[in-house]
Design a protein that fits this description.
With about 325 residues, the chain is mostly helical. The chain folds into two domains: about 120 residues, no CATH class; about 160 residues, hpI Integrase, Chain A, CATH 1.10.443.10. The chain contains 13 helices and eight strands. The strands form three sheets. A three-stranded antiparallel β-sheet has the order 1-2-3, covered by helices on one side. The chain has a three-stranded antiparallel β-sheet with strand order 4-5-6, with no helix packed on it. It has a two-stranded antiparallel ribbon with strand order 7-8.
Length: about 325
């Protein structure tokens, strides 16, 4: 009999997670690679063991929901999947073995209180999604216990505003290519996942830069400014490979060289950002704070919402208008 898992207890019997990749392991047989994403890995696992995923316990419901979410026509993003994996590792040791019908609102309330942090709210959101999905597929006919609970741990929207002087320090600490990408992120207000996907064909010499945001599928035309034209011109001087498709192009080396030239990954940009940021004295700053600075530096809420491609300006006001108000001294 195998040893009881001490970590990754949310994984079904026979699946192991090593170096970010899921594997199917059984006895002395060779390991079978399932992939790097949890949902698709579960599908391959079910095909190998010849079992249709059962949905009875909380663990099974979460796994079935993630499998569905990663294989539908518009799958969840990689960052969302990473968040689900964190929540899964938190929830399964507590609720994983419990039948869906046995989970009470008081159990979830106690979980939120004991954890007492924002992550607990994220865990509850995944649990709610799993219950809703279980109802849709007919595996659960009761009421979702998370819906009865009118409680969540307090969380305040992040209001970190990068001042112009701080931005200059960060850009100066970065390499020329990273500095160009960071400046482009600020000027356009695009999410990092959209920045790395900007193609040369999206750029109109006369009008500006066309983009369709990945998160909301909202089309936006970012019109030219002198600073944005200069930034794009700088990018064309830094990335010069003939036949390149993307404005910012990565040329992987070492073990990733076989992937060939292509767009940067958001994770790769974040890694470069952390190196540059840690060289400076700028504290408590994140890569997505550039998007908040872009929204905050516009004159009105409406202009900020247009730049950030928000359908609801309330989101803009709550999360992306953080510039300090100006005030006159008493005398």
């Amino acid at each position: 009999m195998g040893r009881r898992r001490k970590k990754n207890t949310h994984l079904p019997l026979g699946i192991r997670l090593r170096c970010g990749t899921y594997w199917y392991v059984r006895g002395s047989a060779p390991w079978v690679k399932l992939g790097r994403e949890f949902g698709p890995a579960l599908i391959k696992y079910a095909a190998i063991v010849g079992q249709k995923p059962e949905v009875r316990t909380v663990q099974q419901a979460i796994a079935h929901y993630i499998e569905w979410a990663t294989t539908r026509k518009k799958p969840i993003t990689k960052s969302t999947l990473e968040g689900y994996q964190i929540s899964t590792s938190n929830l399964v040791p507590v609720f994983g073995h419990v039948d869906l019908s046995d989970v009470e609102p008081s159990d979830i309330y106690r979980y939120l209180i004991e954890r007492g942090d924002v992550q607990a709210n994220r865990d509850r959101a995944l649990l709610s999604a799993a219950f809703s999905h279980a109802r849709r597929v007919g595996a659960f006919k009761g009421e979702d216990p998370t819906k009865k609970l009118q409680f969540r741990n307090d969380e305040q929207p992040r209001q970190r505003y990068i001042h112009d002087g701080e931005l200059a320090v960060l850009l100066n600490a970065a390499s020329p290519k990273l500095s160009c990408m960071l400046n482009f992120s600020y000027l356009t207000g695009l999410r990092q996942s959209d920045v790395v996907k900007v193609k040369l064909s999206d750029i109109s010499v006369d009008e500006g830069i066309y983009a369709v945001t990945k998160k909301t599928s909202t089309p936006v035309l970012i019109e030219w400014s002198d600073e944005l034209r200069a930034c794009v011109a700088q990018a064309n001087q830094l990335w010069t490979r003939k036949g390149r498709e993307y404005l910012f192009e990565s040329a992987p080396r070492g073990k990733h060289a076989k992937r060939g030239p292509g767009p940067y990954t958001p994770g790769g940009v974040r890694a470069l950002w952390r190196v540059a940021r840690d060289k400076t004295s700028v504290k408590d700053v994140r890569l997505n704070d550039l998007r908040r600075k872009a929204g905050s530096d516009k004159d009105t809420d409406e202009q900020a919402a247009d730049l950030l491609a928000h359908k609801d300006s309330k989101v803009t006001r709550k999360h992306y208008r953080a510039k300090p108000k100006r005030a006159q001294p008493a005398r």
